[in-house]
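Hey, weird one. I pasted the Polysaccharide pyruvyl transferase family protein sequence into the form twice and got a warning about non-standard characters only the second time. First submission, copied straight from the form history:
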Amino acid sequence: MTKKILITHIATTLNYGSAMMAINLISRIKPFLNDTEIYCECDNYNLDRIKKGTQLEDIKPFESQHSRDISIGQKFKKYILGKDPSISSITDHFDMMIILGGDDLSETYKKGAILRGSIYHSINKKCRVILAGQSFGPFSGTTKLITKRLYKNIPIITRDDNSFEFSKGLGIKDVIKSRDLALLALPNQGQFGEIIEQLPTEGKEYITLVPSGLWSKYTSDQRGYTETWIGIINLVKQKFPKHMIILLGHVLGPPKSDDRVSINKILQGLSKQESQNVVPITNELQPAEARQILGGSKLVITGRMHAAVSTFFMRKPAISLAYSEKYSGVIGRGLDLADLIIESRNRNWGKNSEIIDEIDAKVDYILNSYGGLVKKIDQKVDECSKMVEDQINFILKEINALPA
């Protein structure tokens, strides 16, 4: 009998981080599975991008029937009691559901953690649920008590030690320590080397900046957020006068995309002189192409964590502007690169932001220790990649253990 596996959390492959995780997992488990069908929770457009990224054609789409605009009473009936078509559409047709990692199961998104947890709890009664490559927690108070009940019997593969320790302390039965699924070579990574040659930077060194569209995670002052990024551009121009500057959109899917929400506003705010040698790249790319661009940089300054992960995988340094716990877990502890993180939540954002001064100091630190830093990155990425391979082997073992 054919086993059916559903992989979720990949509704938009225009979030290159989410797409990397999906592509790495699917491309590595599919060749070892007989009589098994893989479905992705996405539409046909995004499925085609996953097929191209994995170089696998035998993947099927699944579109969720989950509705969000309902009352608390309806949510209780639907998700706690499991009486909802979106749950039965999964439990009646699939043997396993793999939820790919992110940071939405944390205190930053605690309401979502409870709602999602109630759904996963109901599904897990009939269909094996695995949380893969997750930043999980921390939670406190009532949220902690509720999540302890909801996630107790669901295997959680953590992508950082903070999440692992919290999950173990919460009493979850099956917790596996691992790292982010993006910390592996993408299957077609080597085929996109020509992307660098097609850039306006050909023959020149460049610095890549990745402004996040999630400005509200940092500050309530969107104008100040834009002004800080303009200040970062001017800082980079001052420190690297012969380099080009790339503004890379790393999340292009709605609603808070990097291109429309951040990059366009930054470009509008630049003077004619400031905009010289600044190259925006906001067209749709394969994740492997985005990784090649990041890897061709002298260094990267980013508000998107997976842009930093890709940069490190390409053995280059990245300065991260952090807005959640995932940065300290994945980058700080996992890669032992806490000295490349700037905690940027609820800070003073604007023309004279101290964040610009901190970036200045971080850039000097990188330049003064570049060789040793790259050597350390190389070593830590190798360690993390081995842990990700163990994660994939665990998932394969769980799939093979499903009743035929």
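That's the output from the first submission. The warning seems to come from a hidden character in my clipboard, not from the data itself. The domain at 189-368 is CATH 3.40.50.2000 (Rossmann fold).
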